[in-house]
Design a protein that fits this description.
- With 473 residues, the protein is an alpha/beta fold.
- It is 31% helix and 22% strand.
- It is built from 14 helices and 22 strands.
- The strands form 4 sheets. It has a 7-stranded mixed beta sheet. Strands 7-8-9-10-11-20-21 form a 7-stranded mixed beta sheet, covered by helices on one side. The protein has a 6-stranded parallel beta sheet with strand order 14-13-15-12-16-19.
- The N and C termini lie close together (5 Å).
Length: 473
């Protein structure tokens, strides 16, 4: 059996791992690589003559850990290039992936229209279409081949290969995947962590323990970090609201990813409004994708944690409350700039990189009565990263603007487990029995620090694979 690391190898995005037996090939995740600059992506694809470094038609099955685009975003391209097999995942992952891929397809279409001209404006010659672009038709064709499985159900994908999904937290439907392969009468187990969530996260089940395996592929996003805030999410958020919208009547802007984090925020706000005697502060949720994703969370309420189920039983609704307004279109989004009462605006994207949030930040960055609250990680170079790092001036849509608004940060809504959570996940395995631990989905510094900690715990064979590196298992 061979394992090749084609993505998330000494970097965070682009998860893609190829597991091969003598006659069967499994791709675990098929994600978009956001770490590559466009010119580097084009050079790689031109060299490969494909989006992928392997023949897509040779893959038999894709196993998908969860819906986020850095894990699912190249699935339509796999079908475009000849893949004819199934994508196996949990049912909520299937529903959320459909939304995220359709959103990505719409973005690709807009970019193609801008490149080639549309309507009255026609370009002289159409520019080359990037190889990794897909449109809605490709998404529909891909989704027809998704096969949902339940958590804890041992599912046979070939005569000699079985898989089991275990709750990973992090996102609705997210899974650790344990693959069992029998070769020459010998059974081997390999586990893929996916993204590991944190305990007691709003709405989600806690990450579940997996059985002992021979090989462990573990993410390392927060391998060198601990979460700073240890308050309950409703306590931390209520303090910010009281300070920014009540004690000083102002406006609170929260950049948030549409899938996962926005639902955690809306649920927490609902709890706050039920439990605190706050005045009637309007909450504007400004993302069509967030609205659609919230409906998926409602549909799969049976897979949420006990606290969420109890809250819904006692109060009727998880997300909807009197002061919540969903903004349906861009015109409504722009109009709330004229809303002069204290309010909360939640909009995507979480790193303030694209999306409607850029308009809200631009409209409020010069307002000393406005506060921008960062509730998650922002990659270096993004607008969110610049705000967190205290830059006095920022550039939005070509305009340089002074930062007069307050900038705050809390990490209670981060969906990633921190260093302690990652170590806890690895420690499920007996260091005398697990043959090798592979660290993926992290920056080099995070991996290196996590590797040192794991080594000290007795796990001696801990690898940090490079892209394209192959191992015999």
């Amino acid at each position: 059996m061979k394992l090749t690391f084609w993505g998330a190898a000494q970097q965070v995005t682009g998860s893609m791992f190829l597991l091969e037996t003598d006659d069967y090939r499994i791709l675990v995740d098929c994600g978009s690589d956001f770490d590559l600059e466009e010119k580097d992506r084009k050079a790689r694809y031109d060299e490969q003559k494909s989006v992928f470094p392997f023949e897509a038609s040779m893959i038999n099955t894709v196993l998908l850990t969860h819906a986020h685009i850095d894990h699912s975003g190249n699935i339509p391209n796999l079908y475009k290039e000849g893949f004819e097999g199934r994508v196996v995942c949990t049912e909520p992952t299937m529903a959320l992936t459909a939304l995220l891929l359709k959103d990505a397809a719409n973005l690709h279409q807009k970019r193609l229209n801008a490149r080639n001209g549309s309507g009255k404006r026609k370009s002289k010659g159409k520019r080359e279409i990037p190889k990794d672009y897909f449109v809605e038709k490709n998404v529909i064709e891909a989704m027809e081949n998704f096969v949902p499985v339940s958590f804890g159900q041992r599912y046979r994908i070939a005569d000699h290969v079985s898989i089991t999904f275990y709750p990973a937290g992090h996102l609705l439907g997210a899974a650790h995947i344990v693959v069992e392969v029998t070769e020459d009468g010998v059974r081997k187990r390999i586990a893929f962590s996916g993204d590991i969530g944190r305990s007691d996260y709003p709405l989600l089940l806690d990450p579940q323990e997996i059985p002992e395996v021979d090989y462990l592929v573990c993410e390392s996003t927060y391998g060198n970090r601990l979460h700073e805030n240890h308050e309950a999410p409703e306590e931390a958020l209520a303090k910010v609201i009281r300070r920014t919208c009540i004690d000083t009547p102002g406006r609170l802007i929260i950049p948030s990813f549409s899938v996962g984090r926005t639902q955690a925020l809306l649920y927490t706000l609902n709890k706050i409004y039920q439990e605190n005697s706050f005045p009637s502060i309007k909450v504007f949720s400004d993302s069509p994708l967030a609205y659609s994703s919230t409906k998926v969370y409602e549909r799969f309420g049976r897979l949420l944690n006990k606290k969420a189920k109890k809250f819904q039983e006692d109060n009727g609704m998880l997300f909807d409350f009197d002061n919540l307004i969903y903004l349906e279109n861009a015109e409504a989004s722009r109009a709330i700039s004229n809303y002069n009462e204290p309010c909360i605006i939640i909009s995507s994207s979480g790193m303030v990189q694209g999306g409607r949030i850029e308009h809200h930040v631009e409209a409020n960055i010069g307002n000393p009565y406005a506060t921008i609250l960062m509730v998650g990680y922002a990659s270096e170079g993004t607008l969110g990263w610049r705000l967190i790092n205290g830059q006095d001036n920022i550039t939005i849509r070509g305009k340089q603007l002074p930062v007069m608004a307050g900038i705050e940060k809390i990490d209670v809504f981060s969906g990633h487990g921190d260093q302690n959570d990652l170590v806890k996940f690895v420690k499920i395995q007996d260091p005398e029995k697990v043959k090798k631990v592979f660290l993926v989905h992290g920056e080099k510094q995070s991996m290196t620090e996590l590797q040192l900690i794991i080594n000290k715990l007795g796990y001696q064979d801990v690898e940090m694979p490079m892209r394209g590196q192959q191992y015999e298992l």
